[in-house]
Amino acid sequence: MSSMNKAPSIECQISRIAIETQSCISIYLRRVDGLPFLQFSAGQYVALNLVVQGQSLRRCYTISSSSQDSSVIRLTIERVNQGLVSNWLCDHAAIGLRLDVGEPTGQFVLPSESKKKLLWMAAGSGVTPFIAMLHELVDTQLSCDVVMLISVKQRQDLIGSNELEALIKHLPNVKLVTTFTSEADVSSEQFGRWTAERIADICSDLDGRLAYLCGGAAFTTDMQQALISLGMAPENVMVESFFAVNTHNTIEAELTSMHVQLMPHGVQWKTDGTQTLLALSESQGVEIPSVCRSGLCGACSVTVKGPCHSEGREALDDASFDAGVRLACMTFPRGDCVVELN
User: Which of 4, 169, 184, 249 is spaced 20 to 30 A from 333 at the CA atom?
Assistant: First the structure.
């Protein structure tokens, strides 16, 4: 793949591996050059760049370790259906394995106002940024009112259960409630999914809280809708969700060949419109800067002149979208078009 516009990365190696659950591991990474990592905030993520089955791939993982220790970062990786990179790491991660790691980034972090009341909601591995945030609260001795709601299938699926318990012992203002969707031996209050009614029963002061949601796309969408239905302002609901995006067009149409020109490189490709602009460029050996690859971070934003179809725009405001800005990872060409890197 071409090195054009390649995001900076750091060569790291795995120094430790921990088994979290039957389907989840944590890898501890140190820089090969021995230097500390750049300062990061709890809740931020890094992109891993690696080659799997002959493909150069990039995937994002939240840092789940304390932001106060810059000598090592911990990434918690859960096996997922058809998860090419996550499953490969779960199967092949070994001490000494070297990985290219991008710089920490992301806005899913604690508010600058420490007295702000918070609501955290997580499903599955979505708990990882909150573990990092709990470490930050303990390490910096911040007093913060937090209601933390977690949803997992069974007790054995709860990532970091002992770590959560140990951290919360030091944080009297953090309230943790966990529900189980497939666990037989639990009370009726602990069984089932989170609903608007259940959220309101646990957290009666939503109006004064800032909500953070992390998990799969279905979970975060449902919880966002539930919170808004309870009167929370959309701007007070923050969402973090890394999930697989279909890179092939599912729109039914009679597509013929079309041309996509990428500027300022001046290259032009013939395509049938079945690949996203990001997948198309990568297949041709040209890299468009990208991070999350799920329409959330905005790193792959481009300006498109010509017909196209976008399956997501969460990272773009209305003014940008109206001006022709699109996310390359979510956009399919629908005819001859010119794509300009932003």
Answer: 4
Q: Give the architecture-level CATH label for domain 9-105.
A: Beta Barrel (2.40)
Judging by DSSP bridges, how do beta strands 308-310 and 237-240 pair with one another? unpaired
Percent of the residues in the chain that have a pLDDT greater than 90, as a whole number: 49
Q: Where do we find the tokens 């949601």?
A: 213
d(CA 335, CA 289): 23
d(CA 132, CA 328): 30
Tell me which residue has tokens 């939240």.
62
280 pLDDT higher than 60 = yes
Q: Where are the domains of the chain?
A: 9-105, 117-241, 258-341
| Whether the bond into 264 is cis, omega within 30 of 0 | yes
Domain 258-341 of CATH type 3.10.20.30: yes
Band (294; pLDDT cuts 50, 70, 90): low
pTM beyond 0.85, yes or no? no
Residue 217: the pLDDT is 76
Separation between Cα atoms, residue 324 and residue 338, nearest integer Å: 11
